Amino acid sequence: MKALLIIDMQQGSFKPYTLRYDTFGVIDRINKLSEQFRKNGNLVIFIQHDGTRENCFLPGTEDWSLLPELIRGPEDIFVSKTTNNSFYKTDLQTILQRRGVKELIVTGCATDFCVDATIKSALTRDYFITVVSDGHTTADRPMVPAKQVIAYFNWIWSEMTPTQGMIKVESCHAILET
């Protein structure tokens, strides 16, 4: 079984929407993938950052809420996290194990923080990982534009040494074609 991870696509990270690179394109691609996952009986997991410790992204607030353009299904699973790593002190690993998930397709925000930390943690847990090359986003960083950050991390992930699982980076279009 496969699971689509949709990491931190929350309103507080997208104020304004132009803050993140290709916001509406990323949302559109995530929606296409999630539709296919639901249709095929695979899991769609939304991961939301709970920033209570930092006094931001407080559960139940507008900033904590998912972007309204993201399509949700009745069987979707929601996981709350408190650090960059979606596995750290969450139910994510238990959910995946109970459902027999061996393959993760990863999307979300922010490329260089929560997406990267989750990918690296999943790799050490021997998952087969596909990063959606055009399904994650971030903001411009000091001296590095977001588009370059995204390209750089896509390259890093494609060059990582696999564990018992593996890691690959593919476009949304390529994933939808398989």
Automatic annotation (TrEMBL):
Secretion signal span: none
Stretches assigned to the Isochorismatase-like domain: 3-141
Alphabetized InterPro entries for the sequence: Isochorismatase-like_dom, Isochorismatase-like_hydrls, Isochorismatase-like_sf
Keywords from the UniProt entry: Hydrolase
Domain of life where this protein originates: Bacteria
The protein, known as: Isochorismatase family protein
Lineage: Bacteria, Pseudomonadati, Bacteroidota, Sphingobacteriia, Sphingobacteriales
